[in-house]
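Give me the fold.
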Amino acid sequence: MYNPDMDIKIQGLKNKILNYTAVTVPSSKSHTIRALLIGAFAEGESRLINPLDSADARSCIEACRNFGAKIKTGTKTADGLPLWTVRGNAGRFPEVIETIDVGNSGTTLYLAAGFAALSGTKIYFTGDGQIQRRPAKALLDALSDLGAEVEITGSNGCPPFSIKGPLNGGSTSIECPTSQYLSSLLLCTPLAETSSESAIEVPLLMEQPYVEMTLRWLDSQNIRYTNNSFKSFSVPGGQKFKAFESIIPGDFSSAAFPLCAAAITGSSLALAGLDVTDSQGDKAVLDYLRTMGCSIEVEAPENGTPGLITVTGPEKLRSAEIDLNNTPDALPAMAVAACFAEGTTRLYNVPQARLKETDRISVMRRELSKLGAEIEELEDGLVITGGKKLKGCTVDGHDDHRVVMSLAVAALAADGETTITGAEAVDITYPGFFKMLEEIS
């Protein structure tokens, strides 16, 4: 049984994962945080149905409360689904704003930084040790171009930093190795006090589907903007967010781990709550696994509820060439799948994976190698020769939730017992992960 104060020990399975009726994956972190921040700056009370309750989401809640939003959690809808209500500040900040500590949440850091640039009060941002290694200078420079006052006190352009508005519009150019830089600008610039336009040039954009998610939220708010094929944007200021109700869909980023668990063990597993029409980029994991020989069945939705997605792993996975530029969070899980595929798999075009909670390219090469995998590290990815029998040992989760979960999946198909240190990191996005793993194995 998982204990967050202890390392986790996982015994390799002698048999396949049991066919399981349905695993319900957590709700989307990306949608939950966008919904919280939009609700925090809206007029009136918004309702978030089935949001993700995790450490990252709680960090965002505290940031929104610092911005003056009133947030109530712990209630349920008439159907029994979790319900959070957010009474927005309507663009009016408190006179005194405490330092915003985003914990481990990079999404909160970047998106909330943009909103802080709307305030006439200096707002300080910090976070844990990993956050203080996350680069922020490109975003902060862009906010400065648009009128904000910025001071960086961390090293190498990383937090801690402070921001003071207001935004005045104007023009900026920003390279986005993480989509969150651009999403931050797109969310805050419509709320600039003046009606002047913000012109944003984007010479480099990775993870485009997450920007598409942000644009869908702006569309739902009837926010005006011009998108020039994701190469540039213009956004008029003087706009407002309005209260809304939204059902938060399941998280494809979290779903990658049970999906890959079924794939590497040649088992069948059904997942509930995932909407294949949603804008989440990591739904591409379904296509990646199809390419590697898995059978994927998607049931039609019923009464507005997404149907089950069932994955069945083949007797032997096939190797593949997979471009992960749009889906960097999928790298740890797909690296594990590649270890059990016949032939050589190349995961490429994902240099931004080095800028996450850890350098996930280096970390996954190091830890899977301890288990016996044959891996070559590239500047922008990994080359993995599958078919090597993995053997349980002690591996380091590096306090990175996706690294911990991927190593746990690998342990299911390894010989003997694997011990994973830093297992408590799963609470960042998937608090029930180890309970789920026990239920299906």
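The first strand starts at residue 8 and ends at 11.
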